[in-house]
Design goal:
Elements: H1 2-10, H2 14-19, H3 23-29, H4 43-54, E1 65-70, H5 73-82, E2 94-101, H6 103-135, E3 139-140, H7 148-155, E4 161-170, H8 184-187, H9 200-204, H10 209-214, H11 220-236
Bound molecules: flavin mononucleotide.
């Protein structure tokens, strides 16, 4: 079964990527996956994922992200240990350590570049990669709980480079329920910080489209229809 999945995935072409799930469905249905099938991740899929990372925005287009791809089993074990013993990571056939080579950022923007933009640039890269992986049918999880020194020494990261995240990739072997997400009313303010609008559905019309899409079995088509109907109803009022 797992081998069939891999064979199918190997045949992925640019046309198939074109036909992959759209961005809204991808955002809504991505989950952190921490259990993987015992099958390798084809290099072409990994290439697509790294490419997605490379296309993320970065401050001043500095593109400080660097990717260390780890397929060696012993090294995967060492890196998982450096990640606070998160040994579930060691089942993944490949890890990608996302690092920031922040020299240029430091030169252009000083301490803000070194400490703030470098983190943000890599975060944007990581999210692109997680979404690309999910779009290709792979699972991953953003891991940033690690002992920085241990990770540095495991894979030889120099002083002018900072590890930001470790991403295990593999074919998912678990179905993860939708995690609790705060409702939009709780996280959104109008005009000044803290100014909430509680009947936000009247203001934004369709504030929980992702919630509907992310529920298992709800397709983007259904969610889109509901959104459209809500919009029509609102317009008539
Ligand atoms: C900055 C950051 C660090 C994270 N570190 C870890 C980690 O070390 N281990 C882990 O299992 N999950 C980690 N996660 C994943 C979160 O636990 C997960 O995104 C969250 O529970 C929401 O679940 P979801 O990704 O399925 O939406 C991290 C996520 C972020 C954004």
């Amino acid at each position: 079964m797992a081998d069939e999945v891999v064979e199918e995935a190997k045949m992925i072409s640019e046309d198939e990527i074109d036909e992959a799930m759209n961005i809204f469905e991808c955002i809504a249905t991505r989950r952190s996956i921490r259990k993987f099938m015992d099958s390798d991740v084809p290099m072409e899929m990994l290439g697509t994922i790294i490419d997605a990372g490379r296309y993320a925005p970065s401050a001043g287009n500095a593109q400080d992200y660097r990717f260390v791809i780890i397929r060696n089993k012993d090294l995967i074990g060492k890196v998982s240990e450096a990640c606070m013993q998160q040994l579930w990571m060691a089942q993944a056939p490949v890890l990608v350590v996302v690092c920031s080579d922040f020299e240029k950022l430091k030169m252009y923007y000083g301490i803000r570049g070194e400490r703030f933009y470098s983190v943000q640039n890599c975060a944007a890269t990581v999210e692109n990669m997680l979404l690309a992986a999910h779009g290709l049918g792979l699972g991953s999880c953003w891991v940033s709980a690690f002992d920085e020194d241990a990770l540095r020494s495991a894979i030889g990261i120099p002083g002018n480079v900072r590890p930001m995240a470790v991403l295990p990739f593999g074919f998912p072997d678990e179905v993860v329920p939708v995690p609790m997400k705060l409702s939009i009313e709780n996280v959104c303010y109008f005009e000044s910080y803290g100014n909430r609008v509680w009947n936000i559905d009247k203001v934004m019309i369709n504030p929980d489209v992702f919630g509907r899409m992310s529920k298992a079995g709800t397709s983007i088509v259904e969610a889109g229809k509901t959104a459209f109907e809500t919009y029509q109803k609102h317009k008539k009022k």
